[in-house]
Amino acid sequence: MDSGLYTENHVDHLHDYAVDPAMLDFTLSGFSPTHYSTHEEHGVIFFDAEEGVPSTVTILSDADIAAGSVTGELSLTNNMHGAAKLIDDKLFVTYRDPSITDTTLPAAVERYAYEGGTFTLEHRYEEPCPLLHGHAANDEFIAFGCGDGMLFIDLKQEDFPASKLLNPESMVAEARIGTVIAHEEVDELVGIVGDQVFVGHHLAGTG
């Protein structure tokens, strides 16, 4: 649906407009569109899919929706309950090795270069992130919740290195971080474990 709300840039100011909302013909088809994230003008939808059907990632913008198209689509090798985050021209995507059969949760992260609707795999991080669920990014890092801690990827260094923070001793036994919250202007990222909340920082550790 088109909400009818839009903003025009008049150089020295922004002008808001409102017209009647309207239904659009644009639709997307896929299995289990579970996670959605945004970066600047683009949105990213991760389709979990199902056994025998690989997960897919779709990137689109408001202009794409108006035109009835998408910016890009990436098909993965298998299904998973995963997520993807586009940051500038890099797409960070979860990875589930085919040998993992006891869960559909991924255990690693891949980085793709993205240009003109084309994705090129650049790197699969060696740092493990078992039972991966939850991700968020600020201006310097993207973090993923893992069964044993949090995986941080540095967005400011050229090779986007990763580092791991292990779960604090105060965490409930056998619990895991399932939700990560961040803001672009705040250094710390928050990991949520049931009714416990932990603040994660790439330098100070968790606590």
Write the layout of secondary structure elements.
Blueprint: E1 5-9, E2 14-18, E3 33-39, E4 42-47, E5 56-61, H1 62-67, E6 72-75, E7 84-87, E8 90-95, E9 108-115, E10 118-124, E11 135-137, E12 141-146, E13 149-154, E14 162-166, E15 179-181, E16 189-193, E17 196-201, E18 205-206
Antiparallel strand pairs: 1-2, 3-4, 4-5, 5-6, 7-8, 8-9, 9-10, 11-12, 12-13, 13-14, 15-16, 16-17, 17-18
Describe it:
The chain is mainly β. The chain has two domains: 31-124, Thrombin, subunit H, CATH 2.40.10; 133-207. 3% of the residues lie in helices and 45% in strands. It has one helix and 18 strands. A hairpin with a 4-residue loop joins strand 1 and strand 2. The protein starts with a strand and ends with a strand. 29% of the residues are buried. The mean pLDDT is 88.
Question: How would you describe this structure in keywords?
Answer:
207 residues; Thrombin, subunit H; 4-stranded antiparallel sheet; 1 helix; 18 strands
CATH class of the largest domain: Mainly Beta
**Average predicted confidence as pLDDT:** 88
- The number of helical runs is 1
- Main sheet makeup: 4 strands, antiparallel
The CATH topology of the largest domain is given as Thrombin, subunit H
For the termini, the CA-CA separation is 43 Å
- Helix and strand string, N-terminal first? EEEEEHEEEEEEEEEEEEE
> What is the helix fraction of residues, given as a range?
under 10%
Low-confidence spans: none
Oligomer: single chain
Rg over CA atoms, rounded to whole Å, is 18 Å
Return the domain count.
2
Share of residues in strands: over 45%
Second rung of CATH, namely the architecture of the largest domain: Beta Barrel
What's the shape? globular
Please tally the β strands and state the result: 18
Name the strands of the widest sheet in spatial order. 3-4-5-6
Quickly give the structural class. mainly beta
